[in-house]
Amino acid sequence: MSSENVACHCCDLIVEVSTLKPGCKAHCPRCGHLLSSQTSNAIDKATAFAASALLFLLLSLPFPFMAFQSQGREQQVSLLDSGYDLLILGFPLLALLLSVFILIIPTLLLCAYLVILLPLRKGQVYPWSYTLTRLIFSLHPWAMAEVFLIGVLVSLVKISGMADLVIGMSFWAYVLFALCLIATITCIDRLQLWHSLDQAASIQRTPPAHRYGGAMQQQLQSCHCCGLIHDLNAHSCQRCSSPLHPRTPFSLQKTWAFLITGALLYIPANLYPIMHTRLLGADEPSTILGGVVLLWQHGSYPIALIVFIASILIPIVKMLALFWLAFSVEAGHQNRVNERIWMYRMTELIGRWSMIDVFVVAVLVALVQLGGLASIQPGLAATAFAGVVILTMLSALSFDPRLIWDNLNQRELNSIKSGQAPLNDLLDEIN
Question: What DSSP line would sit under 26-85, residue for residue?
């Protein structure tokens, strides 16, 4: 990759990112955000991993995923039938969430990777390659194969005492699929991929004239998708055709709307049962916290800890963090900038893991359906909690971290630029 000037996604500082050696990474000097990384033979490795992931996914569909046996009766479930079974049982939302997050989106993601990378390995690129690349990075947060696997593990522990469980071939194929999917995403760096497309298309991008400092302060803006710098009056990206805006439109309004709605849904998500277990006609409702307590009492301490962190601690911490980030921007706070940027990165990273409990319910409902002998039904809290997870993810994605740095006064930035004050002293003052 030849050098390119990019505006940091977190603080808007224009930074020159030159060609990286394999294994090296480029970080923003002001906020520490990862700008780019380089993996040796990244395109070849990602292509191999994506093809392998699709193969393992296909192998995981037709065979039994798990089987539940009790008193001579057996219930099998496969990934291909799980969503359909949930729909037939009258739970369309669970069927939709399960199918979209663990099958449809990962499949679209891998297919898009292969359609882009296979021609790219031969130095070929097509106009629609740029559109597909935009799609890839939009889908990343919503591919939850590894989260689903943790949910399956929790499900196995929860019902291990009810009957015998049999792990099918599809389970192991899906584990390999999830590992290859993670490897595919890890191999490909956003900036490196955009440069590879431009190089294959023999396009040389020339950014507008600029100096040290923030992009918007210099009447410039960067594309939120590919990072290419444009003049402030440009309306669409020259590289990926994304709409341009110096800051995410209505960022705070959308952040507050998603956050408040998610917080309201969190109340019924914890008050009402997330599932009902019926054994020999006896109904045993279970709340999220009740499930954690039950796992702890049965000695499954690691699983209880995972569920507590993912389903109780993470949603609370994430909502509090987003509340503080949005409030601090609204109030014009100019201190603790690096801590708030770190807080924002954590909200992006951890939010999707709260979906574990929703997947637990979906797996158990599809698996445990033995009529009057044993059955599991979802509770009202399952729908509410799914809404909490999705809304808090949308809230984090809507928040523009560059707004945090916009509150810093111009004196501090000008002093750093001109060298009139020691850099460490100024950074201490900002923090």
Answer: EE-TTT--EEEE--TTHHHHHHHHHHHHHHHHHHHTTS-SEEEEETTEEEEE-HHHHHHH
Name, in order, each residue with C-beta under 8 angstroms of 60's C-beta and a sequence gap of 6 or more: 79, 170, 171, 173, 174, 177
DSSP string, 339-385: HHHHHHHHHHHHGGGGGHHHHHHHHHHHH-B-TTSEEEEE-HHHHHH
| % of the chain beyond a pLDDT of 70 | 89
Of 385, 314, 364, 379, nearest to 151 by C-alpha is 364
Query: How far apart (Å, rounded) are the C-alpha atoms in residues 218 and 196?
Result: 28
In this predicted structure, what is the pLDDT of residue 411? Answer: 44
Give the whole-angstrom CA distance, residue 130 versus residue 241.
8
Given a cut of 80, whether residue 71 has pLDDT beyond it is no
pLDDT of residue 410: 45
Residue 398, both tokens? 């809507």
Q: What is the mean pLDDT of residues 330-334?
A: 83
SS3 11: coil
Sign of the dihedral through C-alpha 20, 25, 29, 33: positive
Side chain identity at residue 182, one-letter code: I
- Residue 397 tokens, joined: 């994605």
Residue 238 bridge partners (DSSP): none
44: number of Cβ within 10 Å: 12
Distance CA 49, CA 115 (A): 14
